[in-house]
Amino acid sequence: MKKIIKNYLYTSAYQIFTIIIPIITLPYVSRVLLPKGIGINSWVNAINAYFILFAVLGITTYGQREIALNRDSHERLSKVFWELELASFFTSVLSLMVYIVTTFVISQHISLMLIYSISIVACFFDVSWLFSGIENFRILMVRNFLVKLGSLLLVFAFVNRPSDLPVYVFIQSASTLVSNLTLWPAAIRLVGWPQHVSLNLIFVRIRHSVHYFIPQASISAYVTLNKILLGFLSTKTATGYFDSSDKLLRMIFSLFIAMSTVILPRITNLYAKKLRNKIRIFIVNILQASLWAIIIVIFLVEANSRLIVLLVLGSKFKDMIPVIQMAAFMLIPMVVSNVLANQFMVPLNRISEYTKSVIIGACFNIIIELPLIFYYSAMGAAAASVCSEVVVAGIQIYYCREDFEFTRVFESVLGVSIIGLVLFGIATVMNGTIANLFLAAIISVALALLYLLFTFKWLKERINNLIQAS
């Protein structure tokens, strides 16, 4: 348990840092690039994200799992690493070639799309899955901290007007490439240079990674496609509203992703040792604690959405306030899916069930998002995201119904949820009558602390269960 806590502190410290960086840069960048510039960047980045997805092809998750399974033997570790890395190189080169052709076919914002190709090149050199698999999160945290800090300083130095959008895109893409390159000296010391790597085994690795790629591609269909469709069916400004709200919420949610990054190799290791009872205890208590935490997050976002938007993004983005209020509710099913999929289904190699859940969610999203975006623009995209996340989480609960007693799991959370709902009602009434946004924020934080006080004993039980299971 001490190692899990230590690793989570490393990853969560980095995730907190990645939250702080945008909080610092977003107010500046949003005021410099304006909603249209933010929207254009979001639209181009959304297209680029699909090709990054094909370049990675599920190897990040698959690689982390394979490294965790083979980390006790240096010979097997080295062999698995180079098979996966050469597979990644092959898929990245292929993706880059198709991306270049697509850029000229689309024939919109060509210069920005070409600059973004650096992000695909960065996929050649991404070996973060190696260090995640051996549970060495310290090196990842230190590397990312230094690179992110450097990119922050470059943004402030060189992005000063709306016309500097290409410079901003270059800094973001190049920082990813530099970040990945810095890991290679440590990786070579760990696994050595390749000896004999079979071409057939490389393609076997690609075939296996496709199983992990399909759910990620399906998720991307309803996370990224919304932005692309907004750019075509609505305006680049509406795309900027939706993308900004989505970024703010996913920055917060990254703290929960940090837990998945830490838990996945540990659950994989427990599964290899056939300690299924410990796995159940881990998952149930992490799920309950995650739901407890997300209640606070949603409460604070809903109660202070106006202040958050005006303070972080500026008055030009005031029209996105209802968008972020709508989108915030997707965090609840996202928490459930994060635990069941990333911390249970993936480590136990139940990829087919995971894949089915997100494919159904993606198809559902495509069906509902076209009319919603057409009639309600960014609000429609936010509503489609919430509904799709609910569908995905619901299907995953169905697939895991024999592994966990979800009735008992959610009944235990119901009590703290009622407390959170009462406090949310109080804050809503107060915020409706208090003109001073900062005073309203102070009151909502005080109510959140009351929530923590009332539910502390319950939370302590969850933590004690995790300690005993370890």
Lay out the secondary structure.
Layout lengths: L1 H55 L2 H12 L3 H33 L3 H15 L3 H6 L3 H22 L6 H17 L2 H8 L7 H25 L1 H9 L2 H37 L3 H28 L1 H8 L8 H7 L3 H15 L5 H49 L6 H28 L3 H33 L1
Helix pairs in contact: 1-3, 1-4, 1-6, 1-9, 1-10, 1-11, 2-3, 2-9, 2-11, 3-4, 3-9, 4-7, 6-7, 9-16, 10-11, 10-16, 11-12, 11-14, 11-15, 11-16, 12-15, 12-17, 12-18, 14-16, 15-16, 17-18
Provide a descriptive summary of the structure in words:
The structure is a single chain. The protein is mainly α and 470 residues long. The chain has one domain (2-469). Helices cover 87% and strands 0% of the residues. The radius of gyration is 22 Å and the shape is globular.
Task: Characterize this entry briefly.
With 470 residues, the chain is mainly α.
Structural class assignment: mainly alpha
Tell me which oligomeric state these chains represent.
single chain
- The stretches of 5 or more residues where confidence is low (pLDDT under 50) are none
Q: What is the number of beta strands? A: 0
Q: Into which percent range does the helicity of residues fall?
A: over 70%
- Bin the strand percentage: under 5%
Radius of gyration: 22 Å
**Inertia-based shape:** globular
- The overall number of domains is 1
What is the residue-averaged pLDDT?
A: 83
User: What is the terminal-to-terminal distance?
Assistant: 5 Å
Q: Element order, helices and strands? A: HHHHHHHHHHHHHHHHHH
Membrane topology: Multi-pass membrane protein
Subcellular location: Cell membrane
Transmembrane segments: 12-30, 42-63, 84-106, 112-131, 140-159, 165-191, 212-233, 248-267, 279-301, 321-346, 358-376, 382-400, 412-430, 436-454
InterPro entries: Poly_Biosynth_Transport, Polysacc_synth
